[in-house]
């Protein structure tokens, strides 16, 4: 059984993996490699679902960890955390809509929403790693 103390690190790895999959998928679609794009985006989605399950499990069992930094670092941390949290909530329906439209071949409707979903999802994934780093290694 995975120890609960390891879940924050697992979560950071899952977020980083999602970010790499998103970037690779973006590069693939720009090169018209649609099959690779699809695999990357489905991977990012699956990894993000695993992250969410792991995140909820950890916080249900352990609770929150207070940030110990002071001064300007504390301000930076909370700006990143607040923007990350708001966008993490907002990205869920965007990802689901984007994925649904792609899987149902509604590409004319998929592309405009994907142009918003991609950078926001990438931001959430990357800032998830930054928040982890600042909280556990800062």
List the topology elements.
Layout: H1 7-30, H2 34-61, H3 72-103, H4 107-137
Helix pairs in contact: 1-2, 1-4, 3-4
Characterization of the model:
There is one protein chain. The protein contains 4 helices and no strands. It has 138 residues and is mostly helical. The protein has one domain (4-137). The protein starts with 6 loop residues before the first helix and ends with a helix.
Termini gap:
28 Å
Proportion of strand residues: under 5%
Tally of separate domains: 1
Number of strands: 0
Instruction: Determine the oligomeric state from the structure.
Output: single chain
- What general form does the structure show? elongated
Output mean pLDDT: 96
Rounded radius of gyration (Å): 16 Å
Structural class: mainly alpha
Helix and strand sequence:
HHHH
**Number of DSSP helical runs:** 4
Low-confidence segments, given as residue ranges, are none
The largest pleated sheet is described as: none
Helix content: over 70%
Provide a compact summary of the structure.
The chain is mainly alpha-helical and 138 residues long. The protein has helices spanning 7-30, 34-61, 72-103, 107-137.
